[in-house]
Amino acid sequence: MHASSVQTLSAKASCAVRPAPVYASRLRARRGAFVIRAALAQRAEYIWADGLEGDLSKGAVFNEMRSKTKVIPEPITSMNPKDFPDWSFDGSSTGQAEGNNSDCILNPVAIYPDPIRGGDNVLVMCDVLYPDSSPHITNTRALLVKLLTPDVVAEKPMFGFEQEYTMLNKTGQVFGWPAGGYPAPQGPFYCGVGSESVYGRNLAEAHMDACMKAGLLISGINAEVMPGQWEFQIGPVGAPDVGDEVMIARWLLHRLGEQFGIVCTFNPKPVQGDWNGTGAHTNFSTESMRKPGGMKAIDEAIERLSKTHAEHISQYGTGNELRLTGKHETCDMNTFRSGVADRGASIRIPLPVQLKGYGYLEDRRPAANVDPYTVARLLIKTTFGKEQSLP
User: Fold this and answer.
1) CATH fold of 40-138, please?
2) 0.85 cut: is pTM over it?
3) Sequence-ordered list of residues with C-beta below 8 angstroms from that of 210, at least 6 positions apart, any chain
4) CATH superfamily for domain 150-383
5) Pairing with 39, which of 69, 199, 249, 384 sits 20 to 30 Å away (CA)?
């Protein structure tokens, strides 16, 4: 071959391979950009309820909270639920749809900082909608929102939700109880201190910290009467926020339980016998109740509540009949009774409220597994004399 031809072929070969390093460099740059974008992406945990808390078909141990993670490439930092996209899920796998038409819509209604993942990551509380955007039958929040008419909003109803729960190990035994046996009779455990009296404080404290970091209006925690039983309080907060915050707090409790190997149940009577049940006492007030002379409005509300007792009881939690027996700081579920500083009443008026002549009332009837949106809705419905039919 002629020398000039060899030089020409060599030059072509050189040109053919020359772009390879350039291509590799660009590929690395693209991968680097992807890594940077992925690192900056936001994780949004979409949370909803399947409406089966305490349902016998699911079992008392299993909770109703569901969630899944959406990765959002460009973080949404407004904390405005309207800025977050709707999503969907397979309702046939949660008991909320049939398999031949299984899509349910997740509609963001409240956004909170994610205290577990940190950064720009968020928790997204969602309404569940049908594909036509109407509220799903399990969407009790929508029923509450309908009652928030101008006259109700003007009275600024406020709620304090006392959520009791029981910690279990993975075999279903109360956390901290001796294997195959029982601890000492209840009495020394309520608000106790010391490993002989308190079981599960590490989870209770971690949960409180997470709620605070998420911006929830958590007002306290305490060990309860039965060992292994705890309580956290959300509020005072208005509606529908009380339901949103209780649901997020419940989700955080279950999520953190994964890390501690502890199952938390809202079963109203997790242990039969001479042990306290598990409730969700709800403190309620309107602006008229909170003003000097508000005892008149409190008494009027109690009178109205006495006339709708059966309606409230029917929606105040599954298995509540095992708890509301007239024993263990409860009133029999078939009886309505109010009283000052009486923890055996249906409605308790705290002693400081009675002495001041204004404040709030405490509804002691809700079970721990009650829907917080439903409690708020019924208290508003009865107190304001609203009419509302269920779907």
Assistant:
1) Ubiquitin-like (UB roll) (3.10.20)
2) yes
3) 115, 116, 252, 256
4) Glutamine synthetase/guanido kinase, catalytic domain (3.30.590.10)
5) 249
